[in-house]
């Protein structure tokens, strides 16, 4: 009986390690900027439709996640980015994930080439050290529908719990302390 219990506990531990491994694989599949290094090349910066973005977020279920909606043309977004980086550093070291979603197509005239160029340059300038994607959805209503969120003005950050549920939403510019608190909400 004791041996059966020990085997069951070992199986649970092995399953937990396997799930953690899959979560890390999902994170590694996101093109990322590495702390202290330049971000990915413009051509490697993913362009995602609203449904592709929804699927990318869903693929990260199992890990606490912060998704920050921003744009290079948004002054408050740029102003908060150093705080987002600093406020989530410990969270990311504990296994949490941050995904920056650039909303470049929310303004007229954006092209895939111009969006990639602007986002890659701004990510380099700001020292963003977590994954960045560009959302190609210019229609915010369609994006809201695809994500099941009431997205408002930029910037906006959504905290997702491990089960994929929305743990908290922060509208507007955040501070390092507010981002750290959002990260704790996602970890609960």
Walk me through what this model shows.
This protein has 188 residues and is of the alpha/beta class. It has two domains: 1-30; 31-187, 3-Layer(aba) Sandwich (Glutaredoxin), CATH 3.40.30. The protein is 48% helix and 15% strand. The protein contains six helices and six strands, in the order αβαβαβαβαββα. The protein has a six-stranded mixed beta sheet with strand order 1-4-3-2-5-6. The two termini are 34 Å apart. The model is unreliable at 1-39 (pLDDT under 50).
Neighbour order of strands in the largest sheet: 1-4-3-2-5-6
What is the overall silhouette? globular
Helix content: 40-55%
Instruction: Specify the CATH architecture of the largest domain.
Output: 3-Layer(aba) Sandwich
Question: How many discrete domains?
Answer: 2
The computed structural class is: alpha/beta
Mean pLDDT: 82
Range of strand content: 15-25%
- What is the H-and-E element order? HEHEHEHEHEEH
Give the total of beta strands. 6
- The radius of gyration over CA amounts to 18 Å
Q: Mind telling me the CATH class of the largest domain? A: Alpha Beta
- The CATH superfamily name of the largest domain is Glutaredoxin
Q: Show unreliable segments.
A: 1-39
Biggest pleated sheet: 6 strands, mixed
User: N-to-C terminal Cα separation, in Å?
Assistant: 34 Å
| Total number of helices | 6
């Amino acid at each position: 009986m004791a041996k059966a219990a020990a085997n069951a506990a070992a199986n649970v531990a092995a399953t937990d390690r396997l799930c953690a491994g899959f979560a890390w694989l999902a994170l590694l599949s996101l093109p990322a900027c590495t702390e202290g290094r330049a971000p990915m090349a413009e051509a490697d910066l993913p362009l995602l439709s609203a449904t592709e973005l929804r699927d990318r977020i869903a693929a990260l279920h199992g890990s606490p996640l912060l998704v920050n909606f921003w744009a290079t043309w948004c002054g408050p977004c740029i102003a908060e980015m150093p705080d987002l980086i600093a406020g989530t550093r410990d969270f990311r070291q504990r296994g949490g994930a941050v995904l920056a979603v650039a909303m470049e197509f929310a303004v007229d005239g954006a092209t895939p080439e111009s969006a990639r160029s602007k986002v890659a340059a701004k990510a380099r300038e700001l020292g963003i050290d977590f994954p960045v994607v560009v959302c190609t959805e210019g229609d915010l209503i369609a994006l809201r529908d695809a994500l099941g969120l009431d997205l408002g003005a930029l910037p906006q950050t959504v905290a997702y719990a491990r089960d994929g549920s929305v743990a908290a939403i922060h509208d507007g510019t955040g501070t390092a302390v507010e981002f750290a608190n959002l990260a704790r909400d996602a970890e609960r």
